[in-house]
Amino acid sequence: MKNRHLVFTGLVLLIALLLPLLTNDYIIQVGTEIAMYAALAAGWNLIGGITGYPSFGNVTFFGLGAILAGAFSVNWHWQYGLAGIVAVLIAGAFGFLLGLPILRLKGHYFSIATLALAQATLAVVTNVQFLGGGRGTSLPLIGSPLIFYYIMFGIAALSALVTYLIVHSQYGNTLLAIKSDEQAAQSVGINTVLAKSTAFALSALLGAMVGVVYAIWQSYIDPPTVFEPGITVLMLVMTLIGGAGTVAGPILGAVIIGLLTQLAMAFSQNASSLILGLGIIVVVLFLPQGILGRQRSGKGGKRKGKHSFSLRG
């Protein structure tokens, strides 16, 4: 089954590389959005799927990456590349330091805390003038749609690679042990707080990288847009539909939801919300472990531990 997942991932990457040669600007924009959400979902998967701590606040890091990069570039006149690197590092450090206390919470308490974190960060950013405040930040138009497509595609590929390396490493085994039985992991000497905080930081880094590119791609950002809670919901749904804890699951989920959403919008602008709602219902009723997760469990995969995440609770 692992080979099938690798074949699927390779096929998606090949199609993504060839897509700009065969399509128009609209398809390139759709492909950019799918790649963006694939990367965000892969970042969420590190903490929610592999570690078993469902975060409802990962949009915090996406928003911080976008807002900080824009602020450093516009207010301090930094080159955008440098501004983006610093923004990503700050978001990663924020995720790690925040993870030390917040990841001591479990289950619904952790989820609620991360949701509150996103709203608190939005409130702070909105009231800090250096970060654009409520008026937002305008950035210069640079590059072409094709450039941003390949950049987002590169981040999505990097996210999948990071997930693969973690899953097949000793550190990945540590995270899976925490997901299965955290108390047992602690009893054998595993520093679970450090391991979880590191996973949270990696998730933050990937989310912030996407935010940095998104900001310059859109050329204008404001806090309500980049801290929109629905972004986290999309990460979560895409990961769960594809298969939480798998390498290819977030990619598959992003492709499915992205294509279905575009198909729905061809009929109605509001139909995308209907598609998202139906996606959640399907996951709850028929695919609690996701498409790839269900196949893995059917082949003798790991038994779900008490901290693994399912919408069934």
Topology:
Elements: H1 2-22, H2 25-50, H3 59-75, H4 80-102, H5 107-126, E1 137-138, H6 145-167, H7 170-180, H8 182-187, H9 192-218, E2 220-221, H10 223-226, H11 229-242, H12 249-265, H13 271-285, H14 291-298
Antiparallel strand pairs: 1-2
| Biggest pleated-sheet summary | 2 strands, antiparallel
Estimated radius of gyration: 19 Å
Strand order of the largest sheet: 1-2
Shape label: globular
Terminal residue distance: 27 Å
Order of H and E elements: HHHHHEHHHHEHHHHH
Number of distinct helices: 14
The structural class is: mainly alpha
InterPro entries: ABC_transp_permease (IPR001851), LivM-like (IPR043428)
Membrane topology: Multi-pass membrane protein
Transmembrane segments: 34-52, 59-76, 82-103, 110-132, 147-167, 199-221, 233-261, 273-292
Subcellular location: Cell membrane
Question: Can you give a write-up of this model?
Answer:
The chain has helices at 2-22, 25-50, 59-75, 80-102, 107-126, 145-167, 170-180, 182-187, 192-218, 223-226, 229-242, 249-265, 271-285, 291-298, and strands spanning 137-138, 220-221. By secondary structure, it is an all-alpha fold. It has one domain (2-228). A two-stranded antiparallel ribbon has the order 1-2. The longest helix has 27 residues, at 192-218. Mean pLDDT is 86; it is low at 296-313. The chain crosses the membrane at residues 34-52, 59-76, 82-103, 110-132, 147-167, 199-221, 233-261, 273-292. Its main location: membrane.
